[in-house]
Amino acid sequence: MLKFGFKSKGIVIMSDNVRRLPVGSEMSEQLPFWKRMLMHSPDFVGIIDHGLDVNHADVKGQYCSQKSSGQTLKRAEKWGGSGTSWIVSTGMKGKRGGEFKKFLEGGKLLAASAQWKSRT
Global pTM? Predict the structure, then answer.
């Protein structure tokens, strides 16, 4: 039983449809997104349509620092702390033509803050 005046946050989950996270030279533009997550301090973050690539040749490809998924993880640690874990599924190459045909579209990402590392 909770004592009077105590408020439990429980498990907090946030999700967002980001329509492609900035990557490459624009990677620093991700920081406001992760700072917003830090402000609300969710335990888990779910993202769809992220457009990140993953190293499929490696078992832990979503953590590979050579790919945008691993580089984004470094920014996500501003929210979840060192040891943030996640699973990333990639989308597919866009077929809208012109400027979008080179980029990944879609994809899903589920991140758990470092405090959940022992349970994930």
Answer: 0.77
